[in-house]
Amino acid sequence: MLEAGRIWALGTMSGTSLDGVDAALIETDGEAISGFGASTYRAYSAQEQAILAAALGCWPGDDVSAAQDVVMSAHLEALGALEGAALVGFHGQTLAHDPQGRGTHQLGDGAALADALGLPVVWDFRSADVAAGGQGAPLAPFFHFACAKYILAETPIAFLNLGGVGNLTWVDPRASRPEEEGALIAFDTGPANAPINDLMMARCGLPFDEDGRLAGAGHVDNGAVEQFLQHPYFDKLPPKSLDRDAFSRMARLVEPLGDADAAATLTAMSAAAVLRAMAHCPAPPARLLVTGGGRHNAVLMDMLRELAGCDVCPIEDVGLDGDMLEAQAFGYLAVRVARGLPTSCGATTGVRAPVSGGTLSMPGNAAL
Q1: In the chain, at which residue ranges do the beta strands (DSSP E only) sit?
Q2: What is the model's pTM?
Q3: Is residue 215 scored above 60 in pLDDT?
């Protein structure tokens, strides 16, 4: 166990958008947030993105050595750029997620990372939750609860992360602990940036639709959006989670459309998925705080404002860093794991009882 008190933890995130590695420092005792520190971003090159994309869907035992090299070298570079941490939270790169089937697979070797950095590393955050009957995702909600306390929220709010997949956390900051009944509900909303990014790369050779410019030049195919919303996932009660490619049918729905119309339609699908998700909130949130790359897409944000029925704003409006929130989350969760505190509960992942998920590896390859 980690000694009591506040420490600086360094968290990392390499998301399903496959854009790069975020790393950020956070000061916490595993419960309250005391402050935020420096951060950095290490982008994947086009070649590295191609290697990682080729490994998506792979499971332990498959040959993913090239992707492993990319993940480890990029994380070492990002982590080496920041100093002052007593503990590292290493999420790794999700290649496959099938909690009702084969489990979950985050690529990366936390024990090797601990040796290379000379620091304790918490990693493999999701497997214990899945083994205990949970979805293994989303894991940021306990951190979102701490963020709601940090910004002194007094009424329910919601955090919307628009990464490759979207996820929503509804928080009642009047609760005392995140695992308390009624404090949280969290789940994946549906696809967010991943289908748009895939379209941009396939049709335009670009990694994403910057500022939503291509979508803004197109027209939404409402019929395709309606077909998209017929997916049974939207009627399933939370908690629930998705793999990056669970909605591969989206690409076929927009295949007949021109580039701009296809981008506009995929963007509208992502917004519509969020609207369907908000219907599962116990009470309407006062604000929808948007984080992740999708908040930079002006068209997507405008669509959300039209649909949400509450204030929709980038998370920077409350003094938090939307680019680094996920990395900060895994620094925060690493401290909770090291101190034996839960990182998920029934309302966030559907796990049978609150669980502290993660492996703590010390330099010298000792896993605790």
Answers
A1: 7-14, 20-28, 33-43, 87-98, 103-107, 121-123, 157-162, 165-171, 184-191, 287-291, 311-314, 359-362, 366-367
A2: 0.91
A3: yes
